Amino acid sequence: MTAVARHLAIARAIAAKDLRAELRGRQAVTSTLFLAALTLLIFGFALGPDRASLAAAGPGLLWLAVILSGVLAVGRLHQLEMEDGAFELLALYPVPRAAIYLGKAIGGLAAMLALGALVLPLTVVLYALDVASALPGLVLVIGLGALGFAAIGTLYAGLTVRLRAREVLLPLLLLPVVAPLLLAAVSATASLLAGDPLGELGAWLQLLIGYDMAMLLAGGLTYGLALEE
Amino acid sequence: MPPTTIHVRPTGVPDETTPAVETHDLARLFRRSPALAGVTLRLEAGRAIAVLGPNGAGKTTLLRILATSLRPSFGMAAVDGIDVAEQPEEIRPRVAFLPHATGLYDDLSAAENLRFAAQLMGLPGPDRAGRVGAALDRVGLTADRDTRVSAFSAGMRRRLALGRLLLGHPRLVLLDEPYAALDAPGMALVDALLDEWRSAGATVLVATHADERLAARVDGWLRLVDGLLAEVGGKGASGEVMTGAALQPWSGALPEGSQP
């Protein structure tokens, strides 16, 4: 087995384990999805019934809902490891650190894509968005945004999971770092929905791709620190 | 597929000249307080050694450093002549560690937990199912193989954690309070596994309070007090024993007159 194939096999085993455990302990999945839906509803109430202002706020609120619930999702995937000291043993398997990171990040990506799949139709309904022609582009933007968030969220969740105040520290540390992602994803979404009148969509997509690659690289190189005590 | 009989064996023949475990002035601090305060010892390969001492003596810290779970703050530790801080990735395939916490996933079944461990240990696919089945059989959990671990008692969890150690062929087995939460047959299982590992040539280190039970089953023993080596005895273990003032608990206060 080549080194790459071995990395991928380990990552797949970790991601499959995480998703299986997460789907069986349904409580966490349900509450994460519920938080995303609730965020959209509450902002909808706050903005009032004006159709134009709802549609204008739609792209921003879609991403706020994804990211706020995403903090819970990536944090949860690491808390699973803390239930009975599993994180310590995970670090002791004779496998590359980058493969462990990749596995956790794939689990995070799956959770983020599930969030996107719920949030997108809900935003369309609640915020009266017209997505018919922009749907393929929106799926791409959500995919890129989910990947970037999973990449950096996994690293930060790993670095904070042993800390006593992890529930507070994770959003405090993570949200500032995802600001570029939020900016690019919201702008790309708004641009897509408006039919890209300024021709800026390509630049935002490039920023998203660059962000994803940088965060994956940072995670692969530094996640080992999270496994050290 | 019916489970096959499991036989514990090390990955290679221990080198006679290289000690299985060697430490020099090994120290580990937690928030400036020493859990290990300078331990120098040498353990021969293929021996079963008890690590004794009261709570807080540094037994778990010693085991966790040898398992590469903790890095030493000062000094060095080596397994099979390999420095734990320099080349932990070389040591991990050689070591099987049973920590205090079982490290199991509650929402996975017993078999799924072991299958996951087998995957990460790099067991080839065709061997995996047989090895997992054999390990479950050896620890008496075949009937519960598809039960989620969240439904297990503390003793069953301990058995399953022991089963995980049977998936590989370790050179060094580190057991932290292996008798904890086990009933009489469970304790007998630990005794039997200990004998099997030793007769297979692996070195076994057992941190425990159950020293009377273990006395007949180990070759040697060492006793830690306040992070220092207080006694060493039997076959296969040697080290620099601290006596008298060195064994007084470290208060963390500077001696009088040393204040600026």
Overview of the structural elements:
The complex is a heterodimer of chains A (229) and B (260). Chain A is mainly α and 229 residues long. Chain A has nine helices and no strands. Helix content of chain A is 84%, strand content 0%. In chain A, helix 1 crosses helix 5 and helix 3 packs parallel to helix 6. The longest helix of chain A has 32 residues. The two termini of chain A are 31 Å apart. Chain B is an alpha/beta fold and 260 residues long. Chain B contains seven helices and eleven strands. In chain B, the strands form two sheets. In chain B, strands 6-7-8-3-9-10 form a six-stranded mixed sheet, with helices on both faces. Chain B has a five-stranded antiparallel sheet with strand order 5-4-1-2-11. Chain B starts with 20 loop residues before the first strand and ends in a 21-residue tail after the last strand.
Concise overview:
Helix content of chain A is 84%, strand content 0%. Chain A has nine helices and no strands. Chain B has seven helices and eleven strands.
Radius of gyration of chain B over all CA atoms, rounded? 19 Å
SS strand fraction of chain B: 15-25%
Biggest interface between chains: A-B, 26 and 29 residues
Beta strands of chain A, count: 0
Largest sheet of chain A: none
Q: List the helices and strands of chain B in order.
A: EEEHEEHEHHHEHEHEEE
Residue stretches of chain A low in confidence (pLDDT < 50, at least 5 long) are none
Secondary-structure-derived class of chain B: alpha/beta
Widest β-sheet, arrangement of strands of chain B:
6-7-8-3-9-10
Q: Provide the helix percentage of chain B.
A: 25-40%
- Spatial separation of the terminal alpha carbons of chain B: 73 Å
| Inertia-based shape of chain B | globular
Tally of helical runs of chain B? 7
Relative helix content of chain A: over 70%
Question: What structural class results from the helix and strand content of chain A?
Answer: mainly alpha
